[in-house]
Amino acid sequence: MAITDLRGTKFLVTGAASGIGRALAHAASDRGARLVLTDLQEEALDEVVRSVRERGGTVLHSAALDISDYEAVTAFARDVHEACGSLDIVANVAGVSVWGTVDRLQHEHWKLMVDVNLMGPIHVIENFVPAMIEAGRGGHIVNVSSAAGLLALPWHAAYSASKFGLRGVSEVLRFDLKRDGIGVSLVVPGAVRTPLVDTVQIVGVDRDRPEVRKLTQRFVRHAATPEKVAERIVTGILKNRFMVYTSFDTRFGYWWARKFAPPYNLVMQAANDYFRRVVGTK
Ligand code: NAI
């Protein structure tokens, strides 16, 4: 009962107010999925709901909430199940990003990464997947991790804690849920041109410094559009693919890391030294 057609499916997107989540909501709706949308930002979420409906799409339910708040996700799931029954597709897209070295990262940064990027998707899985199993129609789970869920990118320890964690959850569920006909996709974007690029916090670093601006601009130049990422995700669901790459660099980097560990170690160290040189001084 793998998903081969989105028409009529009940499709949840978290982080739907912006970037990849918003693009995924539109891409899914354009293929006939009926949406359940959530995000922390109420006004921006309402705007997305309006635009989906204007394009002729269906939003079954939407509510603003913090996915790191277990009680809030539980209440949301209760409302969704009451209003429209069990879902077919659950896409964990919402996330935040903070980078920094261990001497600068505060406890709150580590906690925010794990609470939002790892516990958030877990709260969603806990609250929605048992009803999918019970319904027996199969379905699909999409977890948006990151290249930083595969590779040791400089200063990404806190972010990678959450994104490697989400990858672990996904790898296990892929096998656990197969017999229930529920597929799992792990999305591992490299750079994507979304508001996240402007909001990523580099602790202790002034992002307006010319060197840092240059680095950010380079990141944005190589970045994929959220629409392209959304298309890849939709294809990943329809073809029941576990790994969903959105750019060649991540696919190649991960392949290389697994096949050629010693040069990977050298390159990662060089990237780290480069980062320290360019961003490291305040
Ligand atoms: P974005 O900032 O455009 O969208 C993220 C959305 O998540 C926002 O609408 C935000 O309000 C929502 N959100 C944040 N914290 C939340 C919370 N506690 N509860 C509910 N909603 C919350 O960012 P983007 O780029 O679309 O990010 C989507 C996902 O893609 C994230 O998980 C991010 O880590 C991941 N990603 C993004 C990359 C990029 O270069 N933009 C690269 C790799 C992964």
Task: Give a written overview of the molecule.
This protein is of the alpha/beta class and 282 residues long. It has one domain (10-276): NAD(P)-binding Rossmann-like Domain (Rossmann fold, 3-Layer(aba) Sandwich), CATH 3.40.50.720. The chain is 53% helix and 15% strand. It is built from ten helices and nine strands. The strands form two sheets. Strands 3-2-1-4-6-7-9 form a seven-stranded parallel β-sheet, sandwiched between helices. A two-stranded parallel ribbon has the order 5-8. Strand 1 (10-14), helix 1 (19-30) and strand 2 form a beta-alpha-beta unit. Helix 3 (70-84) runs parallel beside helix 4 and helix 4 packs parallel to helix 5 (157-176). The chain is globular, with a radius of gyration of 19 Å. The protein starts with 9 loop residues before the first strand and ends with a helix. The structure holds 1,4-dihydronicotinamide adenine dinucleotide (NAI).
> How are the strands of the largest sheet arranged?
3-2-1-4-6-7-9
Instruction: Just name the CATH architecture.
Output: 3-Layer(aba) Sandwich
Number of strands: 9
Total of domains: 1
| CATH topology tier name | Rossmann fold
Helix content: 40-55%
Global structural class: alpha/beta
- Quickly count the helices: 10
Q: What are the distinct ligands in this entry?
A: 1,4-dihydronicotinamide adenine dinucleotide
Distance between the termini: 54 Å
Mind summarizing the main beta sheet?
A: 7 strands, parallel
CATH homology superfamily: NAD(P)-binding Rossmann-like Domain
Shape: globular
